[in-house]
Design brief:
mainly alpha, 75% helix, 0% strand, globular, transport, Transport permease protein, ABC-type transporter activity
Length: 265
């Protein structure tokens, strides 16, 4: 199954790369600021949260005294959450948005999730590059612990891709799925320690949020960039297991329902 999947993707690599290029260009065509909007949107959110919460949160970030600590804390969580949110929200509508393409052109449908991943990856790479540049200029470079970013991102992308594929398939047959997930994603954001540290919450709430698969991942990013600490890999095992299950379930459902999706579009 995996070998045939890899072969299909490799055979249609030109189609995938061409689609990624066209989508990136069309997104910013006739735009005054172009790709700069990729940076301005999360930057504005970070600025708002920093202005509103920094004086409250700064004193509650353990072991950090300087005034920019909360901004780094926010960036570590918001930027990586943005990658997760973009993959899942775009994946849930990828088959509906490309309905005409699926009906008119014969190509492996698995190309669509890959195109979503590539586009989200490009946007994230732009933002991450600027964030790393900021850390370097301000003397906050994480050092060798930055290597942990690779497996953390791989784990996050796997989890998001598996969840996104399931949502995309279900959304074809049940159109309420996309609307419902949009609401759930907002609650999910606030139930993840991104704009607040876990330490300010009562112990019972902390124990409850520990069941959130994104909690350990966000804390790993925050500890990496703020404290230069390696992740506690054992805390990420549940996310790894859930991610593998979602990917397996998504691929199986994709194979079984792929033909029916075109009729439903």
């Amino acid at each position: 199954m995996l070998l045939s999947l890899h072969y299909s993707l490799w055979s249609y690599r030109g189609f995938i790369l061409g689609s990624v290029k066209r989508e990136f260009q069309s997104r910013y065509r006739n735009s005054l600021f172009g790709a700069l909007w990729t940076v301005l949107n999360p930057l504005s959110m970070i600025l708002v949260y920093t202005v509103i919460f920094s004086h409250i949160m700064r004193a509650r970030l353990p072991g950090v005294e300087d005034g920019m600590a909360y901004s780094v804390y926010l960036c570590a969580g918001l930027l990586t959450w943005g990658l997760f949110a973009e993959i899942t929200t775009r994946s849930q509508g990828m088959f509906l948005e490309n309905a005409n393409l699926l009906k008119k052109i014969s190509f492996p449908r698995i190309c669509l999730p890959v195109i979503v991943l590539f586009n989200a990856g490009i946007n994230f790479a732009i933002i991450l590059g600027l964030f790393l540049g900021f850390l370097l200029i301000t003397g906050r470079w994480p050092g060798i612990t930055l290597l942990a970013l690779v497996p953390l991102l791989a784990l996050q992308v796997m989890f998001a891709a598996g969840l996104g594929m399931l949502l995309g398939i279900l959304n074809v047959f049940f159109r309420d799925v996309g609307q419902l997930f949009g609401i759930c994603l907002q609650f999910w954001f606030w139930l993840t320690p991104i704009v607040y540290p876990m330490t300010i919450l009562p112990p019972p709430i902390q124990q409850l949020l520990a069941f959130n698969p994104m909690t350990a991942l966000m804390q790993s990013y925050q500890n990496l960039f703020l404290y230069n600490q390696w992740p506690v890999w054992s805390s990420l095992v549940p996310l790894l297991v859930v991610g593998l299950l979602l990917c397996t379930l998504g691929l199986r459902m994709f194979r079984r329902r792929g033909g029916e999706m075109v009729d439903e579009l």
